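Section 5.1 Outputs to date
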Amino acid sequence: MRYRAGTICVLFLAAGMLGCQASTPVAGTLAERLQSEDPAVRIQAAVEAGNARDKNVLPLLVDRLSDTDQDVRFFAGMALEKIVGAEVAQAIGWRFYDPPERRDQAIQRWRQWIREHTRPAASEPTTTQAS
């Protein structure tokens, strides 16, 4: 398996970072920041969502699983696992490094799980694809 050097650093530090609060707050709601054009903002928002175990942003985190930035995909997956539990995440089978077609299949399984296991929020966030 081949990884970019930056990804190796991210993997190494991920466990510690998921337990930390962001040092520099960024303006906007969590939903807005998950859809930011800046990958660093999307990563920070995913970490915050996981730490808060915020089920309201599950659809947005699932959208981030197809993000163009590999690090955003990784942190979105970690946040989802933290929110719903490792058993559910493992059963769904999504991995940030899988080829796009396998990630897409797992993303569909995530969307199905959300439809079956969560109630829609009063004001469901609008999902968009960040580039």
